[in-house]
Design goal:
This protein has 5 helices and 4 strands. By secondary structure, the chain is mainly α. The strands form 2 sheets. It has a two-stranded antiparallel ribbon. It has a two-stranded parallel ribbon with strand order 3-4. The chain is globular. The chain starts with a helix and ends with a strand.
């Protein structure tokens, strides 16, 4: 679910099993983001986000233009960062909607 959220956030249109590595400790390593960071404002597929990590939801609001420009500005255009922030807002809105519909216990996990 965290991978799906991340891919929706960065608008990765090319996630498949060949670009997900699994460590011996069963941790995911996401590779090949060459088809990500599209300047698309909306989520590609909100149905892929039925539940949300509490820590990710708490961290998302801290993403802002100055931080992203500082950390990724040499790699991303302003339009890409702006689109990412709009997708961030869409994710937060979707989480809020899902909580209202199904209750926090059914939507949020640690």
């Amino acid at each position: 679910l965290k991978m799906r959220l991340f891919d929706q956030l960065i608008c990765n249109v090319d996630r498949h099993l060949n670009n997900v590595l699994i460590t011996k400790e069963f941790e995911l390593r996401l590779i090949d983001h060459s088809r990500a960071f599209r300047p698309v404002n909306e989520l590609r597929d909100p149905t892929l986000l039925p539940r949300f990590s509490r820590s990710l939801l708490d961290a998302l609001p801290r993403l802002d233009m100055p931080l992203l420009k500082k950390r990724a500005g040499m790699y991303l255009r302003d339009s890409q960062i702006t689109a990412l922030l709009k997708r961030r807002d869409a994710i937060l809105s979707l989480a809020k909607q899902r909580i209202a519909e199904h209750g926090e216990a059914a939507v949020i996990y640690p």
